[in-house]
Amino acid sequence: MSATASWRALGTTATVLSDDPAALAPARAAVEAELAAIDLACSRFRDDSELTALNGADGEPFHAGPLLIGAVAVALRAARMTGGMVDPTLGAELRRAGYDRDFAALAARERADGTGATAAARADRPDPAAGRARRRAPGAWREVALDADRGLVRVPRGVALDLGATAKAYAADRAAAAAHASAGCGVLVSLGGDVAVAGPPPAGDWAVRVGEDHAAPLDGPGQTVTIAGGGLATSGTTVRRWRQGGAPRHHILDPRTGEPAAVVWRTATVAAASCVDANAASTAAIVLGVEAPAWLLRHRLPARLVAADGRVLRIGAWPQRDAASAHEASAAA
Amino acid sequence: MTDVRDAASQRDAGIHRVKRTTRWLTTGAVALTGLFAGLAAQATHSSASHAASGGSQATPNGVSAATAQQDPSVGTDAASGYGEGESEGDDGYGEQAPAQSAPAAPAQAPQYSAPSTPPQASSGAS
Hints:
The complex is a heterodimer of chains A (333) and B (126). Chain A is α+β, with helices and mostly antiparallel strands and 333 residues long. Chain A has helices at residues 24-42, 50-55, 66-81, 91-96, 103-113, 119-124, 164-183, 275-288, 292-298, and strands at 3-9, 12-18, 62-63, 145-147, 152-154, 187-191, 194-198, 206-213, 223-227, 231-236, 241-244, 247-250, 253-254, 259-260, 265-272, 303-307, 312-315, 328-331. The radius of gyration of chain A is 19 Å and the shape is globular. By secondary structure, chain B is mainly alpha-helical. Chain B has 1 helix and 2 strands; from the N terminus they run H-E-E. Chain B has one helix at residues 2-56, and strands at 111-112, 121-125. The longest helix of chain B has 55 residues, at 2-56. The radius of gyration of chain B is 30 Å and the shape is rod-shaped. The relative contact order of chain B is 0.09. At the A-B interface, strand 2, helix 3, strand 4, strand 5 and helix 7 of A face helix 1, strand 1 and strand 2 of B. Strand 9 of chain A pairs antiparallel with strand 1 of chain B.
């Protein structure tokens, strides 16, 4: 019988499960320490974070600590392995799209004035027809220079990093490893639906409810699967949304346009050897749209895609539908 | 009589040529079969190695190193497990070749869970 604890962290819900109830406290402490360190290193919304300092370095080499170096390495690796579909150099575009503060603050702002866009974001916005696709020079991430041995990173002038797509998964992987080391038993860490497990799984493995919103009740719509290791991540276009100039926006940008990706999939859930790989693949699937099933099959990644109309597509070795799910299809290698 | 012997001789020579041609064709077919079988085995081994490596190379960070795939955007990962940055040129950042990688598949795919099994955590968008 596992024990669980949940709290707010990194702008979302952090959950830790410990296979040994007596080990929950040290497991949680390890996760909290890891998340606090990641937040201080990688938050785009904190004035005192290393990432904010790096983005303000104006193209000059920046000495970074090992956590930020690791997070940038992870982000660049995600860009490489997705052919640039997961791009960490979209910080300025996210700000222009109105996502210039912690999402809770953004949602509060939207409730207050009905725009969701701050004055700065409105002033930055070059195209009044928000949502209309523009072309963006792709591959800026290739210009980010990283020397992990010397702890140096350099971001081109005018480019701002946003590590949100991968840093959360990186944190989940690290937190799970730290919690396992501290607790000495199998653990599961979930950060807003990005799931990482470490150590021996419990009998019957970890049961995870896959749905549209990580905060939905565990008996809500979706499918329950079990995992024994690695990671599981869900990216979606329906939860972290706001309006800008009357147009609906979501937080997954298409690097080819700098605009929110076209909504082909409401959610994409991917299982991989780590949470980082699962997250990169699920984010890429949202951006790739109709090309996602073939890409996931090519990489042998089990996945569950929910189309805009609610139909579910299972990819590769993703388990069969549960009895309650209708309209499910599958694509096999 | 001589004509009969000549005809028989020509017949035997023809049969001999047919046999020789058949033997060469058979030998060639066997050789080509072996060649293609070897190539197929090599390709299958590469794929199997990749699939196996996905879950077997976990680093202390819990991330697997991946091997090269056919996608031009991916390749081998750096030893760190998370890879290194891009090369920049002659400014001190460019000494390393561009490292590439592919998302690593799980060692074991998610399994179907019976409706009677209560979920312990959730994975959804946030």
